[in-house]
Automatic annotation (TrEMBL):
Belongs to the CbxX/CfxQ family. Transmembrane segments: none annotated. PANTHER family: AAA-TYPE ATPASE FAMILY PROTEIN / ANKYRIN REPEAT FAMILY PROTEIN, AAA-TYPE ATPASE FAMILY PROTEIN _ ANKYRIN REPEAT FAMILY PROTEIN. This is Stage V sporulation protein K. It comes from the Bacteria.
C-alpha cells in the first residue's frame, strides 16, 4: 500500500492509504499534518483549502472533516470485511442573512459529489413559491418536479419556515409531506438542506414533530464578529488588489461596530461587506477621475472618503 489512490468507483469513494501511527488528535484544525498525508487525502485537503478562504465557519469545517473521516473509515472497514454504515445527511442551516448559508451549501454539494455520495452534486435553491401551488394536487406535483430536478444534488430550501405559514389548511403542508416522503424513499439520491433565521426555524421544527429527527445535522451560522467582518473587508480588498489606508480601516471598523449593535438581527453580515466594498470601488473611481490621478499608487489606494456611509446606497439587510 505504498501508492495511495483516491478514486471514485460506482458512486463510492475508494481510498487506499499508508499505515501511519501518530497523534492525530492533537491536530486541531486539520486531520493531517505532513505533506504526504495531505496529498493522500487530496479531496479533504482541497476542501479544507477552499473553506480557508472563508472567515470563521468552524462548524462547517468540522463537519467536512467528520464526513470525510467517516467515509474513509467505512472504506477501511469494508476492506476488513466489516459492515460499512449508511447515514442520513439532510441538514438544517440556521442563521441571519449573509452569514454564509448558501455559500456553504454549494460547497457541501460539491464535496458530497466528490466523495461519491451525490451522483451529480449540483445545487438547487428554491423557496416557497417554487414548491407550493394554487389548488389541490398542484403542490404535490410542483414539489415532485423540483425533487426530480434536484435528484443527484443538493436541494436547498431558503426560509423553509414559510412552508408552514398558513397552518393546517395551507398547501405548504402538502409540500412538507411530499418532501418527507421523498426523504424516506431511498431511490431519491439527494441531500435536503432547510435554511432560515434561527428562531423561525426552531418554531417551524417544533410545529412538525416528525421533522427534526430527519435532519440529523444542524449547523448554526452565527453573526460574524466585528473582527471577522473586518477580516472579510481585508480579504475582499486584497483579492481585488486594493490597499486600505489605516485611517480607512479605522473608519470602517467604527461603522461596523455601530451597525452590528443597531441591527443585530437583520444586518446582512458578509453580503453587506461585499456590497460596501463594491460601492467603495465605484466611489474611488469617481474620486480618481475628479483628481485626475491614474498612477499606480492612486489606483491601488482605498481611502476613508471612499467609504461614505452617510450617503451610501447599500442596504443594511
Ligand atoms: N465566512 C465568510 N467569509 C467571507 N465571505 C463571506 C463569508 N460568509 C459570507 N460571505 C460573503 O457574504 C455573501 C453572502 O453569503 P451567503 O449568500 O452565503 O449568505 P446567506 O446566509 O445564504 O444569506 P441569506 O440568508 O440572505 O440567503 C457571500 O457572497 C460572501 O461573499
Ligand atoms: Mg442564501
Amino acid at each position: 500500500m505504498s501508492n495511495p489512490v483516491n478514486s471514485k468507483k460506482r458512486g463510492r469513494i475508494n481510498v487506499v492509504l499508508n499505515h501511519k501511527q501518530d497523534d492525530r488528535l492533537s491536530q486541531k484544525d486539520s486531520l493531517f499534518s505532513t505533506d504526504q498525508e495531505k496529498e493522500e487525502h487530496d479531496i479533504l485537503t482541497r476542501f479544507e483549502k477552499k473553506l480557508e478562504d472563508y472567515v470563521g465557519l468552524e462548524e462547517v469545517k468540522r463537519l467536512v472533516n467528520e464526513i470525510y473521516a467517516w467515509l474513509y473509515i467505512n472504506q477501511r472497514r469494508e476492506e476488513m470485511g466489516l459492515r460499512a454504515s449508511k447515514q442520513v445527511l439532510h441538514m438544517i442551516f440556521k442563521g441571519n442573512p449573509g452569514t454564509g448559508k448558501t455559500t456553504v451549501a454549494r460547497i457541501i454539494a460539491n464535496f458530497l459529489h466528490e466523495m461519491g455520495i451525490l451522483s451529480k452534486g449540483h445545487f438547487m435553491e428554491v423557496e416557497r413559491a417554487d414548491l407550493v401551488g394554487e389548488y389541490i394536487g398542484h403542490t404535490a406535483q410542483k414539489t415532485r418536479d423540483v425533487l426530480k430536478k434536484a435528484s443527484g444534488g443538493v436541494l436547498f430550501i431558503d426560509e423553509a419556515y414559510s412552508l408552514a405559514r398558513g397552518g393546517e389548511k395551507d398547501f405548504g403542508k402538502e409540500a412538507i409531506d411530499t418532501l418527507v416522503k421523498a426523504m424516506e424513499d431511498h431511490q431519491h439520491d439527494f441531500v435536503l438542506i432547510l435554511a432560515g433565521y434561527s428562531k423561525e426555524m426552531e418554531y417551524f421544527l417544533s410545529l412538525n414533530p416528525g421533522l427534526p429527527s430527519r435532519f440529523p445535522i444542524s449547523i448554526d451560522f452565527p453573526n460574524y464578529t466585528t473582527e471577522q467582518l473586518m477580516e472579510m473587508v481585508r480579504r475582499m480588498l486584497r483579492e481585488r488588489e486594493y490597499e486600505l489606508t489605516k485611517d480607512g480601516e479605522f473608519h470602517i471598523k467604527e461603522h461596523i461596530r455601530k451597525i452590528r449593535q443597531e441591527q443585530e438581527r437583520t444586518f446582512s453580515n458578509g453580503r453587506y461587506i461585499r456590497n460596501i466594498i463594491e460601492e467603495a470601488i465605484r466611489m474611488q473611481a469617481v474620486r480618481l477621475l475628479k483628481e485626475n490621478r491614474f498612477d499606480k499608487e492612486a489606483l491601488l489606494t482605498m481611502r476613508r472618503e471612499d467609504f461614505n456611509f452617510n450617503s451610501s446606497h447599500v442596504k443594511l439587510n
